[in-house]
Amino acid sequence: MSxxxxxxxxxxxxxxxxxxxxxxxQDCSTTTCGSGCEIPFxxxxxxxxxxxxxxxxxxxxxxxxxxxxxxxxSLSSCRSPIFRVESVDDxxxxxxRVLTVVLGDTS
Length: 107
Fold this sequence. Notes:
Elements: H1 14-27, E1 56-57, E2 68-69, E3 78-80, E4 82-88, E5 94-98, E6 102-103
Antiparallel strand pairs: 1-4, 2-3, 3-6, 4-5
């Protein structure tokens, strides 16, 4: 999904819509949700225990990955472009969790 695609749900808030959709997928990954073509699973192993994390990367308008800083006591330059949605409230405010950390300068 992209803001540049007209296939979007008629909203100009594409990041909010995508993050909400990812959150819904994570919330739906229990045994109460069915399976089938309309339910996007990660991989083809439906008999495996269901993981609810849908990792994703946010990109800036210039196409660069958006990174969050994750300070630690021993390291001063930890950042990551990979997130998980923890929650989205009624005002479309999302809480994201950093999933992996890139140490130091990779340039």
